Fold Crp/Fnr family transcriptional regulator.
Amino acid sequence: MTNELVHQKFHHILDETLIKEILEVGLFRHFSKDDIIIDVDQPLKYIPLLLSGSIKILRGDDEGDDLLIYFLEAGETCTMSLACCMGTTKSKIRAVAEIDSYLVMIPVEYMQKWFHSNESWRNFILESYQTRFNEMLETIDTLAFMKMDERLLKYLKNKVMLHDSNTLDTKHQDIAEDLHTSRVVISRLLKQLENEHKIKISRNKIEVLV
Amino acid sequence: MTNELVHQKFHHILDETLIKEILEVGLFRHFSKDDIIIDVDQPLKYIPLLLSGSIKILRGDDEGDDLLIYFLEAGETCTMSLACCMGTTKSKIRAVAEIDSYLVMIPVEYMQKWFHSNESWRNFILESYQTRFNEMLETIDTLAFMKMDERLLKYLKNKVMLHDSNTLDTKHQDIAEDLHTSRVVISRLLKQLENEHKIKISRNKIEVLV
DNA sequence: TTCGGTTTGTAATAAATGTTACGTATGTGA
DNA sequence: TCACATACGTAACATTTATTACAAACCGAA
């Protein structure tokens, strides 16, 4: 079943030989919602390929403060881990399962080997880097140029897009943590967005109208 | 003379054959201080390798507002251009010569070709990505977790480090643009840093003491 | 239904940053 | 040396965001 998923999610970019090898050496793992897949300062020994679900990539500082950088979706890999694996080998980010998720974990040594031996893997890595690079730029943009109310709306819209549903079941506190601000600020701004008829709020639920 | 520089700055990472090819197909360019090397929305047809000098990589929004992302030093390449070249082909950043600088510009098609044919080039690209990735993370950190006074001091220290001199000849307005704030704010905070004996201010000059 | 924990609303206040306005210093070239 | 542009200092004020505190609403379990 997981084998099927590997084919399904990766055959468009990785060649048959490689997929076969992935099935041999990869470790299949399941994570439940809110499980921490990798944490800051943990050593990275595997490259994750996401088969299903969704993973939140966060930057955490020393005091446990977080900031959402981007989401990982099925068919993608975490470029952070690539960058980390090659260099310091310590994770600089935290990865948390947003919903139940299945992963294949590839031991780093294969990542290196394949990079020089398999063209489709090279392209995959390169493409991943590009995608994430642009997403990091986007994040920087957001932080540097946007006010909190804009950031909040953007965050909500993005979540709605990824979830394929207009309604998010989330509490204000969670949003505050992702955007690295306080719950009070989020509540205030959500109320404001509701007054502008852009969202509808109820307990543990936010309906996005725009 | 520029040929010498290519060897000097890149022989530790790129092999002889490749360097020879770079000398054949690369275009040598000189930029003076404050020259715009590439601007937002310009199409990217070349990968730059920096031979000497220093280049400021900025993110610019629509209204001409800027934010410094990182500096490029001799022996490095701009990973942004890699990411841009492969994808949208339009630059998402602005590159400005910080001081007089010499570059070799490699046409994109070679970048692709070498990526699959030359191991040392592959490693170079991969290493560049790692370095920049970490720097982008650092930038995100700074924006998300630090206050303006901390950001300012960090900016000054970084510049001092890159310049090999305790004294920066820069005006408050320039700093304000790099950090995406206003001149008044920078002047205020600089004064504050001076009172804390961390810097010494004079016209067009800042001496960093810590 | 009642208790108790969780989630949300809101006010009051503080701190950080942004904006406007204008005065003062400093260097340059006529 | 005088006029002028540029760079800097600073006050007053506006806006945005953070913090604290507490009340109200909601929900599930006993």
User: Anything to note?
Assistant: The two ends of chain B are 38 Å apart (CA to CA). The mean pLDDT of chain B is 92.
